[in-house]
What we know:
Shape: globular
Structural class: mainly alpha
Helix content: over 70%
Strand content: under 5%
Distance between the termini: 68 Å
Radius of gyration: 22 Å
Order of helices and strands: HHHHHHHHHHH
Oligomer: single chain
Amino acid sequence: MPYARDYMDIVAIGFFFLGISMAASNLIRAEGNPKVSMVGMIIGTALNIVLDPVFIFGLHMGVRGAAIATVISQICSAAYLVHFFVRRRGHIILSLHHLVPRLDIFRDAFVLGLPSFIMQIGMSIVAIILNNSLHAYGGDLAISTYGMVFRLFSFIILPLIGLTQGFQPIAGYNYGARRYDRVRDIVKLTALAATLLSVGGFVVVQAFPRALISLFTSDDALIASSARALRIFFACAPIVGLQILGSIYFQAVGKAGTSLVLSLLRQFIILIPTVLILPTLFKLDGIWMSFPVADLISSVVTSIALVFELRRLTAQHSEAKAVTV
């Protein structure tokens, strides 16, 4: 708790700059300048990597040094992205009168952003429940295992999120332009790319679990228990990309209700109950099994929704083509 307080007291200062950076980055990406958005994120990330050892070890500031490095990085990233608008290098020209809140815009942004918000906050709620369950069934060793397994899982999830974020504006543009054939093609192409990424991560994890865990620790007991957990955790990883794609697709085409349900499906509707129920049957293994069970059910439901949506797009494209002829 003292470490958490030391970190949060400082890093909270950067929340404002983090918000500016995220908003500017998404605006720039949405208007068709993904490279500028990427450079802004790289500036923040690279600077954080460089400053962390300087403040933590060089200046002997420990956790507080890590927080200071994070805030400085966020400020620099936000400054670069805001400078893009100030120089008027893009299509969007900002002025003070644009900063007056409008209820209609806020309402639409809130509704369309709600699924992503729930997905993110759901991860935090699941983490709270998991930590308590892990402590009850496996103690500190299990909590440490989850920390390592989840970090490795992030190496699959984060590229998938990046892929679907790139997919989102393309699908939205073409859906708005009634180019349903293009929407259908980009869904299929992104689904293939997401599956290849997921399968690649799955193969690596199943083939080298101990080697991957040993990147985090040299404790033989922890490596052995974590390698088993890692394999169970990743059991349904090859199909997890479809669930993420489905949620983002329906958000991109303005179907916030469907997107919200698909976002809730894995994080809340399935994962939380399985985390609470399966350990009563399989002890600690039940917690690790909760994730592939949630991945399997949510991915199957999402795939069914996408199949029906692709059929609808095909029908709409045929109708539009017939009208044109």
